Structures are given as C-alpha cells and as structure tokens.
Amino acid sequence: xxxxxxxxxxxxxxxxxxxxxxxxxxxxxxxxxxxxxxxxxxxxxxxxxxxxxxxxxxxxxxxxxxxxxxxxxxxxxxxxxxxxxxxxxxxxxxxxxxxxxxxxxxxxxxxxxxxxxxxxxxxxxxxxxxxxxxxxxxxxxxxxxxxxxxxxxxxxxxxxxxxxxxxxxxxxxxxxxxxxxxxxxxxxxxxxxxxxxxxxxxxxxxxxxxxxxxxxxxxxxxxxxxxxxxxxxxxxxxxxxxxxxxxxxxxxxxxxxxxxxxxxxxxxxxxxxxxxxxxxxxxxxxxxxxxxxxxxxxxxxxxxxxxxxxxxxxxxxxxxxxxxxxxxxxxxxxxxxxxxxxxxxxxxxxxxxxxxxxxxxxxxxxxxxxxxxxxxxxxxxxxxxxxxxxxxxxxxxxxxxxxxxxxxxxxxxxxxxxxxxxxxxxxxxxxxxxxxxxxxxxxxxxxxxxxxxxxxxxxxxxxxxxxxxxxxxxxxxxxxxxxxxxxxxxxxxxxxxxxxxxxxxxxxxxxxxx
Length: 514
What we know:
The chain is α/β, with parallel strands linked by helices. It contains 21 helices and eleven strands. It has helices at residues 11-19, 26-29, 33-38, 51-58, 63-73, 96-108, 124-135, 154-166, 183-196, 212-222, 243-249, 261-277, 292-296, 300-312, 319-332, 342-356, 364-371, 383-393, 410-419, 426-434, 436-447; strands spanning 6-9, 44-48, 79-83, 113-116, 139-145, 171-175, 201-204, 226-229, 454-458, 489-498, 501-510.
C-alpha cells in the first residue's frame, strides 16, 4: 500500500508573510491553534522568515513570546521554522556563537524542525546552523533554493542534495520561493533525489505563476514525502496551494492523505475574518495568477513591493527596463538565486543601473556579493564588476566562509544589554544582535507609563432629550475583546459625563506604523 504524502501547514508563517506583509498577530492565531493541532499535519510552520522582524518592528511582540504561546496551543504537532543559515533571520552573516545560541534557544522554547537555507546555496553558510540543530537534538532540514540559470541543472541540484545528506541533515527541502519550478522538472528532481539519497524529500512552492498545485502533484507521483500547503485566504496566489484544494487534486490518488474537511472549513472561516482585519496589508488579491514572475523570475512578494519602490523613486514608467536588468545583474553576480536577501539586493541594483548607468551607483550589499562577503556564488562573478566593487568599496575579494572573519559576539551583546538596563539572557542577546533598535523600541514602549483615563464632558445640548423613562438596565454582559488592528492601536479608558450621569467607555486610537 502506498504511503500517504504528508502535508505541512504554512498558514501561521509563510501564508501571511506572502499575502499580508507578515502582519498576523499572535492574538489572531490563538483561536485556530486547537483545530490546527488536531488535524495531524506533519508540522506547523510557526516562526522564522520575516515573522521575527515584522512581529517586533510592527506588532510590538517579543519573538520568543509568540513561539511560547503557539507551542503551548499546539503541543501535539511539531513546529518548524525557516532559518537563513548564517544570516539567522536577518540579512548579514553572524558569528558562529550567535548562530549556535539562537538555535539552542529556539530549541529550548520548543522549535522542532529547523529548515535551513542559504541565499547563494553555499552550504558552508548552512553548516553551523545544521551542527547546532543536531547538537540540540532537533530535526535539521537542509534546503536547496530552486532557481533557473545556465549553471543550475538537475545534476547541480542532485549533487547539492547528496551534500546536504552528507552534512547530517534529517531531510531535504526543495524550496521554490518564486513558484517557478515546472511540474516535469519537479518530477525529475524528486525522482533523482529519491534514487541518490535516503533521507525524506519535502517540496515547497508557491502559486504565484499558477504552477504550484500541478508541481506538487508531479512531486507526489515521483515520491516526495512531504509538501507544504496553507489555508485560504492565506493560500494560493503568492502563497502555497490551499490544503483543501490540494486534497482535491489528489482525489482517488493512492497517496492522498486524510485531513478533516469540516475542521479545515472552520479554519477557513476563522482566517477569512483575520484576512479582513488585515485589509491594509492585503491590497493585492491572492487569486490572481502573476505571470510576471515567469518573465522576471523574482518572488511574487518582491514584485508587489518593488512596484511601490519604483513609484517612490518616480520610476514607475521604467518598470520593464528595471526588470529586464535583473538577469543582467544576476549573471554579473554569479547567477545567484533570488531569495531573501539576494532578491532585494539584485532588485535595488537593477534599479540603480537603470537610473544612473550600469554599476555607476553600486549598492554596498551588491558589492559585498561581488566580493564574496555573502559566500560563494553559483558561478564566477564578472571580473570587471568585481574590480569595480573592490575599487568603490576599498575591500579585497575573499574566498573563505564569510563568518570565519567574524569575532565571537555573545559576551559583547550581553554587556551591551546590561549597560542598557535590558534583560541579558540568550533570548535577548540573539534578538539584540539582529534587531537592536527594534528591541530597544519594544522595551521603551513597555516601560512607558499607561495614559491616565480622560474625562470628556458632553454639553447638555449635545445629548438627546429623554422621551420616556429609561428601561431598567440589564446585567452587563462581558465585554468582547476588541479585534486586533494590524496597523497598531492603543486603547484608552474614557469617562464620559452626560447631563450629570457618568459612563465608562473604551476608545481605540489607530496607529499607522508604516
């Protein structure tokens, strides 16, 4: 009998990162946890990626508090996070001791599966995170970032898969961040990996270009052990295929899994309400297939964000020029994959090339890629471009692992936190390493005094004249908790006096955070 394929669920991380600018709050997640935990998914992706940055920056949530709350609410299902290797969840390489401390601390708070990737597919930048994960007794999933170029072939990826297994990983993820992988290629790649490695294969894609569900189907046919799905409306479009939709694609297939459709419908109803609450961040509609990602080969989230950036630069009319420049930049920088942070770096450099002339204005991050400070690129960097980068930056090219140049930092981070009067445990050290300003703002807001209740006097003329004796007051019902406002809000207690009678009320002040 065929073994059913396992579904991992992405709704609590990649689902809202792809479709709502990573603005779902922990409070909005809590009502869904029991249903999610009882469905029997292989794992729930709950952390990592942009959630740590966005949660701290925009939602004023301390990242480990979210992990604790979600773990407590879903004790039966393994938790998974997306980890950018030596970048952790930031955009630069960090010293080994910070990477180790982050992994150990996340494991202590209940993280089970660490999905570890490097933006350049440089496995040297994945090794320390893999070692730390194994030392913590957790599941290390090594990632190959799928992309297309003259140097990215099936054989290239198969060799990387063998290397990932040799590094001690417990499984392999084929990560198709832009939704580009054609179904037939997916079939061949999964089939080849199943013949050459013994660890399980997980396939991850997006529906950005409308290929996702078909790609999953062929991957299942080829023997993929796991695929990633989400829950509508945080599914499809630039997100993963919806779970119910994927179950329908596999109807009557010998490897179709069994997930409770009634529970999935209840989850859909809950997340539809949350999607409405996040309306300011869901302006793009996820049911639209975006063929631009096939033309420009960039992740869907970058497409929508980059259009806004071009508008801010008064370059909206040069969209086609800028995106036609992206493959030029990719080739010059060694055919790097487009995934955080390289997608943003390449996009900005393409814009600068169009606006100022090729390589006349060279971003520091793009220069660092050209000089090896992000790691080894899939192909050689254009020698002329590398020469320009060295001249403009005053830095020499390197060929070593970038983190080998970084000094241990945990003692320094602990000292800085002590001097600032902030907690200096490992949780705060690793967050301070990546997001020092955001962490300080978080604590500044916590220490700010609560505003005193205001008294508002409403003139008698403004109050309605009583037409009859008021009915006896009913027993007060428990107040419903206010719906979370993704843009941020403050609640003020207000005492209102009308014609000498006092009333209590709560006023919500909406705060625009970006």
